[in-house]
Amino acid sequence: MRRPSPNSPAPLSRRERQIMDIVYRLGRATVGEVMEKLSGRPAYSTVRAQLRVLEEKGHLRHEEHGLRYVYMPKVKRHIVRQSALKHLIDTFFEGSAGKAVAALLGKEGFRISEEELERISELIEKAKKEEKGQ
């Protein structure tokens, strides 16, 4: 299996994303700890295999503590977040961040607070200034 570079993590299945979310939230986790947090009562061997696959894909690393493996994220969460966001925008919004923002601002089901709108406005202004400076 090809190992991804830190800037290009391998894509994850739904269950792998769930496992990674658990490991990110806990910071480090054993198979048993991941099992406790997962829905559907997966078997120990299944979770262990999925953690091994995540390690092979370059998302996790492990340390041995006695007879236990303790898994930790290998890829920083912000890198994974950027990769997932880029994939989402490319897939559903034709690569347009503007279309994604328009969908968030213009559709039902999304509640954006005044504070969030202000923060978005500040980010837009900052991006404009940085673009002019280049």
SSE topology:
Blueprint: H1 14-26, H2 31-37, H3 44-56, E1 60-65, E2 68-73, H4 77-92, H5 97-106, H6 114-133
Antiparallel strand pairs: 1-2
Helix pairs in contact: 2-3
Would you give an account of this structure?
With 134 residues, the chain is mainly alpha-helical. The protein folds into 2 domains: 1-92, Arc Repressor Mutant, subunit A; 96-133. It has helices at residues 14-26, 31-37, 44-56, 77-92, 97-106, 114-133; strands at residues 60-65, 68-73. A two-stranded antiparallel ribbon has the order 1-2. A hairpin with a 2-residue loop joins strand 1 (60-65) and strand 2. Helix 2 crosses helix 3. The longest helix is centred in the C-terminal third of the chain and has 20 residues, at 114-133. Mean pLDDT is 86; it is low at 1-6.
Key traits:
disordered N terminus; 2 strands; elongated; 134 residues; 9% strand; two-stranded antiparallel sheet; mainly alpha; 2 domains; 59% helix; Arc Repressor Mutant, subunit A
Gist?
The protein is mostly helical and 134 residues long.
Order of adjacent strands in the largest pleated sheet: 1-2
Please indicate the percent range of residues in DSSP E strands (runs of 2 or more): 5-15%
Label the structural class.
Answer: mainly alpha
How confident is the prediction overall: mean pLDDT?
A: 86
Distance between the termini: 39 Å
Write the element-wise H/E pattern from the N-terminal end onward: HHHEEHHH
**Contiguous uncertain segments of 5+ residues:** 1-6
* The named CATH superfamily of the largest domain: Winged helix-like DNA-binding domain superfamily/Winged helix DNA-binding domain
Global outline: elongated
Number of helices: 6
- The total domain count is 2
Percent of residues in helices comes to: 55-70%
Radius of gyration: 19 Å
The main β sheet shows up as: 2 strands, antiparallel
**Highest-level CATH class of the largest domain:** Mainly Alpha
Tally the beta strands.
Answer: 2
Just name the CATH architecture of the largest domain: Orthogonal Bundle
